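Example: DUF1648 domain-containing protein.
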Amino acid sequence: MNTHARHDSPASADLRAVAEDVDLLLELDARNHDDGRSPEPVRGTGTVLGMPYDLRRPTAERLKATWWDPASEKVLVPRAVGAGWAVNFGALAVKLGVIEPDAEDVPFAATPDAAFRAAAVGPAVLAAAVLAHYAVRGRSLPETLPNHWNLVGEVDGTVSRPVAAVIDIVTATTGAGLALCGGLSTSHGGRRAGLLASGTAAAAAAAMTTVGRVAAQGRAPWFGPSFLTGLGAAVGTSLLGLARAGRRAEQCRDLG
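Written out as structure tokens, the predicted fold is:
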């Protein structure tokens, strides 16, 4: 019987030691989560009087993860920037039965380019409507226009007509530009969805503010709820359309 002693090279021994260290770190991390200990806080985030805040620079990926996470059961989640909560439209869509939590392997990864480009049309239309409003009706508007409403719908802040026009037009066109970047980008789907959702939110907010400056000049308790509902509907519909397009693309790919 011929036997040979096994001798590992120094490189093999080093690689095996590194692998063992990695396994140990993964095991310790799993134990930390299993025993209920919270992960280390992220710099720039936290809570004040129970309200979450995030002071980090916003990114398209974080916005997407905040607004669309169907795998999570939480409908209200901490905002991606600022203080307070945002709606997780992915979880809301699951609860409404519109999609399934595992509808996509990775959200928006399979969404085709045509769907992203189509989603950029909505913000562009809203921006065009804001521009047309001030171009056609600008001179006939009052010299001062509402700029802020309190919780009961009363105007508690005004600006001059030119300032209102600049605010609304710049916000709307910026939103359309962000959406266009998302529609034409060659980046991964998550970032494109974040850009489109951000652009849609900005353009929709500008369009509804433009309407409110004319229609809600007195006491208008309906304006606040209408604004939030319209904003949520615009962002949620945009993301839902992208997600469903991605789901259809995945199904076609799986079926061959």
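The CA atoms of residues 93 and 99 lie 6 Å apart.
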